[in-house]
Queue: 4 jobs
Job 1
Amino acid sequence: MKTPFHLAAVVIVIAALLTGCAGGANGGADGNGSKAAGASGSKEQAAAAKANDAPDLSKVTLRIGQTGWPNWELGFKEAKLDDTPYKIEFSVFQGGNNQLLAIAANQLDLAATSEIPPLFAALAANQGNFKVIAVQRGNTLNQELVIPAGSEVKSVSDLKGKKVAYVANTTAHYFLIKMLEENGLTWQDIEPVQLPTSEGLSALLSGSVAALASYGNSIISARQKGATELASAKDILSGNFLIEASNDALADEAKKAAIADFLQRLSSFHNWTRKNQERWAEIVSEQTHQPYEEALGTLKEGEKQRSVELVPISQEAIASLKDVADVLRKVGVLTEDVDVPSIWSEVFAEQLKNLKSP
């Protein structure tokens, strides 16, 4: 398979520039301005440019983080997109906040998070050492506030004075605030318990908390163990999931080229899942222990709500993030204002514009 984004465009531009320079140089050197000599020289210099300027991706290891499901490593293998000219180290984190902590520590090159973690990371030392480079539009299913089997809680308003587990600095944090507001409660009206996804699920099932605000596999597992939805965030969240790259990776030409290639493959993977829903549902079922029909139904429902696709940075996406920041700032969860536009980078804008839409 041909490797996308092999910097061909860059090489062509450099070659064209060198062609002009070569003609002038030869004209001065031999006194006759020979077009043949200029053409020969331009070809040689173009070849040299290609050999010398194209990064050697074989020496690159791209460290990529992700949260829960879908598992890109399995997906790339199934879709036959794993023949990368560079190495990939995939790591799964319990939240996007932890991915950005890893980027800040230069332990990760690429992250995939919701809109919430970058806001907190931007207030850390060195502004978190990252830039948002792309938006992954997707569905907002499996983002829920759930209660355990047999709970006496019937509505969000019933949570007043009760313990509610949530994953800090994530979509769960944000949509729990919004759900409380929509039901006449504030953050101060509940006893919030900050827990990672797995511990939050354990707390819910043991009865240590009255409800759990979470996402992904923990919500799937909670349902399998009898938990039920108290409220859904599918109409609260924007569906914008952000791709962040470390400043260190963006400053490295070879890693930047590898990231460009990876974005193309990620887009191709999304297209593959749309065309192979039954096969992907089988894999999801195997990995999450969901019944196959339920996994397939979730895929189809998610596609109906919003197709997953990579899109370029837009003013609408930046405005959406600003709205989230304003909400979190208003309730005191964000302690400082965030310069939202400053954390975005359009370094891959042209590549993203050329990706195929679903």
Note: The chain is about 45% helix and 15% strand.
Job 2
Amino acid sequence: MGDREKNVVHDDYNDAISSHYAAYRPPLHQALLAEFFQTSGRGEIDIALDIGCGTGVSSRALIPYCKAIIAVDPSIAMIEQAILTTEPWANIAYCIGDGEALNIPDQQIDLVTFAGSLNYAKSPSLLKELKRVCKPEAHVIVYDFEVHLDEWLLCLGIQMPETAPMHYDHEINFDDCELLRRNIGSVKTVALDVSAQNLAHVLFSSTGRYNRLQAKFQGEDAFHQVVKRLDRSGLNLQIKATTYLYAYTQVTSVNQ
């Protein structure tokens, strides 16, 4: 979860798709965290906890703001990939686990983040653990985003088939939790300028899109054909996304 990147969980990735996925990700984690720190005025964090860290994208986005980061995910494969793609100097400790049973002493955490992972993680047991491990007045950030690519697929002559909707809620948050007081609530659409090559990497980074693009453009050079098509389109190359950001302060100490 986390940046568990829902596509990684549900798609049967091959090496080629994984390479596109690794080559470029829209910097939405960084933008949402920057919005939180600018809006809240919060300074440097001593210890942050990233629950459902997935491949570590969300954890690495915390580096500029935190002295130390603990990142947990229940998937061994995700944690292994996160370690492989994180610089050795980074202040991140990756752990296999989940938010319901954290191997962390009481009142240690100053900031908790859920990057696209709360839909899978939210439970009474999670809330109990947050109350235990967080310092009084700790911050909890819930954020997510939905990237919109249909216009670019249509530009390339591809229409994706209708699929059954996933039981996934981008807007899930902690508004119903008395333990937490909401300070920030933001849902908006953003547009990021990208190169043709980076836009193509995003288009090729899921199994469904990859297979249709390969079939349309025939063969190993399909990626380069798509880059040329996008370059020659004359359109303003952007990736649009709906972003969701909710930030909370813990209002009840562990002793209450």
Note: Residues 1-13 have pLDDT under 50 and may be disordered.
Job 3
Amino acid sequence: MFTRLLRRYADLSYNKLVTNLTSTPKAKPSDLTKVPFGTVFTDHMIEADWCEDKGWSEPVIKPYQKIPLDPSSSVFHYCTECYEGFKVYSNPPHILSFRPMTNMERFVISADAAGLPKCSPHELLKCIDELIRIDKDWVPQVPGYTLYVRPNMFGTHAQLSVTKPKKAKLVVIMSLVGPYFPSGYKPVSLYCDESLIRSWPGGHGHRKIGGNYGPAIVPAEKVKNLGYDNILWLSEGYVTEVGVMNFFVLFKNKNGLELVTSPIHHTVLPGITRDSVIQIIHEWGEVKMSERNFTIKELITKLEEENVVEAFGSGTAAVICPINKLAYKGKEYNIPTVQGNCGELTKRIFDELTKIQYGKVKHKWNHYIA
């Protein structure tokens, strides 16, 4: 069905890519340590428009600039929006990204969930690769610093009715980002409360759409004011995610060690880092890897019995984020970090993933751009 639709309407096409380079390149920051996350953008961006009766326009690489939008555009009223994010790494003489096609495939699925048009993930990635090549001088050469790629699609249909937008815009921008832990790798503390809900069965918590993240900002701030770094989200008593990351916990059972994470469903995002962790653990074959439902009651019981070995979050920004504390129903539980700032398995996974991401080892997940 999707193939037939692509034949009927114009799909996004790399072969139609138009390039319009800036004549006034920006000055690059002299000190990356003073650049806040996602505030400094490269010289160029990608822009393409879609309309219901014609399909996609030719994509254009153009100087980074503001976008004029009608105030009645559906994105402003009904959050008809989706996005993605992945990093570009420097390993001289190469620059590369980490499993970007998986991001593109997830982007297309999220667009559909937000009532937005689909596009070819392969063609979109080819366009993005060209954008990266054009702005390759922006890829940081300093260890721990990367170029963050943000594809974004949103409804531009100027109408206040609650319907699928008949017009949409695709934009890809890129930003300088530093290490998630600028002062050194360190664990975070979590706060858990059944009244704080990010996603729910039958919803769209498994998609990268803006409506899943905006409402989580205020609860996150409240938790920080209580002295904790992040939220352990629950859905009907089941543990789902931590902040904007997937959650993993290493249990000690009578039959050995079990690394557990919630399965993908309507309340859990199919994280690319999450999937990478699962594949690595299966390949190592040293501990049992389980994608299963588990409740906060099971987690607390394991903590009380001292059968939690370690825990961490996984995501694009942090890669692997160690966890050392959980607050639940007025009581704090310490989570072991035997290496001082993390668990042994946590650090081993982090090291393995970052080696692959920076191209220190050859791997099927390496995507070389230049």
Note: DSSP finds eight helices and 19 strands in the chain.
Job 4
Amino acid sequence: MKVTRHGNEMDTVGEAPKVGDIFPTVIAYDEDDQAVTLPKNTGKKLLLSVVPSINTRVCSIETKRFNMEADNFKEVEFITVSDDSKEDQKNWCAAEGVTNLQLLHADKGDFAEITGLDVPEFGHMARMVFILDETGRVVYEELVTEISSEPDYAKLLNELKK
């Protein structure tokens, strides 16, 4: 897939899951380095936001926005995955007061390769948002082709309301 960062074109390695696909089983890690298998089988919809680095302006804005929106969607689980260290994520959550979503760190290689979001030239994952139904099927996906831009919040929040 083609993405840009400040207008510079780069390629991801592989293809991300599309609407209608069953999301692949991937592992990310919580603040205690405990493995979390995604998608979770909680019987809830899942909004899965993948961001390059939580310590950048756009990733921070996006994650804080989803943290705020989680209050409006009690029937949806909100998870953000980045390839930051658990310490960076813990410090960021404490500084920003983020408590309504789960922030997970990924082994960039496995998670990024399985989801098709690895951007070797960038050294991080591409920015993408998925909504999965209760069975783990992708019902919405948005690859943010300009990595330094935010996703279309209105469109994806409308999808969550369905």
Note: The mean pLDDT is 93.
